[in-house]
Amino acid sequence: MNGRLLLVCRLLVRDLRRRRTETVLLLVAITTATATLTLSLALNELVTRPYQQTRAATAGPDLVIEPGSTGPEALAALSPLTAAPGVTGHSGPYPLLFKMLTVRDLTVRVVVEGRDATPAALDRPAVTDGTWVRPGGVVIERAFADALGVHTGDTVSIDGHPMQVAGTAVTAARPAYPYVAWHIPSSILHEAGGLVWVDRSDIATLAGTQPLTYTLNLKLADPQADISVFGPERRNPKFRGWHIRTWQQIADVNGRLNKKAQEALLVGSWLLTILALTGVAGIVAGRIIGQRRRVGLLKAVGAGPAMIAAVHLAEYLVVGLAAAGIGLAAGWLAAPLLFGPTAGLIGSVGAHPPLRVVAAATALALGIAVAATLVPVVRAAATSTIHTLADAATPPRRRRWAIWLSRRLPTALLIGIRINARRPHRARLVTANTLVSTATLAAVLMAQAQDHTPVPLGHSTLPDRRDERTIQAILLVAVVACVVALLNTIVSTWAAVLDTRQPLAVARALGATPGQAATGLAVAQLLPAVPGVAAGIPIGIGLYLLFSNGDQQYAPASWLLAMALGVLLAIAALTALPAMAAARHPVADTLQSAPA
């Protein structure tokens, strides 16, 4: 047993040293796949759990109550609730005003909440920039501040009273901008608006003649309970006209800000995973083809299927697990830099990926190793040693019309067609790679072509953050898809270069020039890319329309045509350099290095 293990280790080290370029390509391909998978899982973590993280960081309440009355009557109505059965803690009541805020040439609705300088035990907004409330200063909810374009130190005016921005903060007691539930006191109709906090001492000045209302934050013994905690009926008549929000309702409203972006990231994660796996499949298929002769040599010296499996599995495990570790770290660290929760919430992926993410990345690497090992083992059991040693490529199907047509084709085009006929599976992977990347770019163009309705906020309007985040998510998927597609193209081109050294040398020996050989190799990559581009455009448009509501505008045909030509030009540029390098290699050296 020790002798076999030592033999496997020696063959592993020898093959990794002998095939350094192929090993690097395999490492890059698997790293890209695991990094893409990890990135997709991390992005899903960022957009699905931000409210829970914000609630934990800010001691969010279970129930937020605003009475249907104002002034002393409102305080009297809230007072008995703090001692009701099932209530374990509270903060407030805090005074509320519904005013207009002016900054530069914008005048928008704003909910003004009076707070104390000392942080409360329940609902203590987390300051993200600057300081907490102070007399004469205002703290603006972060998403609202981003929409307004204001920063710490700027001056805003609330109902004609100038105030300096002391800082920005986030809270779990109210939905983020624009869903903070601005309303006229005693009215149950909600309007879009933003949230600000001021020192309690400034409330009387800001209120003027407007009566104050109040908000009360409650902590319940059963966080899943709602208004029913105050009576046997779920809808208690004494609370008619009140504004009562459970933390689940607030979480649901905040979830709407990320819903479209989450859908875009979900669909994008599947597309990116498919894209990354096509790159891995391409390099693994190339290595399996290149190892045909090796399988025959192992069989010739007496190795059985188990030994052949051990030799191949060891190599792929070493490379796969190393790539999984690199890809896991890269994807997890990149996610918060590329995309985050809405500005009104706190969200992070943590310093270390959870076990399920590590398991998914490791499972992908192991799956690649097992799949890559399975083919040589099956071939060893089903193919004769002599046939395996011959290492014959897939013979092209010879048809009379094809032969007649090939005589009239330019040399470069003929070489490209023969390369794809020799390795048809690689050509299909190029088509899949181009299709996914083109579909993603078509969805981006569709998103950019829409007229997005702004949010009305009284006298002024502001952009809808939902549309902005959806476009941001689609752009992120598109950028990552382009990077993965570029890596896949580079890996596929180099794999094709290594696999076609002998056929290109034979073509040159028969009279083809280096330029024709290089162009032929580039054509071999471009030909399967054309149907991928043609199919990717309608698929991308269809995916966008599938997850969109209402009437949608189509991207101009000129945009789509320019994008399609850009994809093909990028593929041609990426294949040009390795193709020229392969075509200029001396023919004699290449033919002498071919296995006998």
TrEMBL record:
Keyword vocabulary terms for this entry: Cell membrane, Membrane, Transmembrane, Transmembrane helix
Location(s), subcellular: Cell membrane
Membrane-related topology note: Multi-pass membrane protein
Residue ranges occupied by any ABC3 transporter permease C-terminal domain in the UniProt entry: 268-383, 476-585
Presence of the UniProt keyword Chaperone in the record: no
Stretches that traverse the bilayer: 24-43, 264-285, 320-346, 358-381, 473-497, 517-547, 559-581
The organism's place on the tree of life at top rank: Bacteria
Keyword Transmembrane helix set for record: yes
Signal peptide region: none
Similarity comment text for this entry: Belongs to the ABC-4 integral membrane protein family.
Protein's name in the database: FtsX-like permease family protein
Organism: Micromonospora sonneratiae
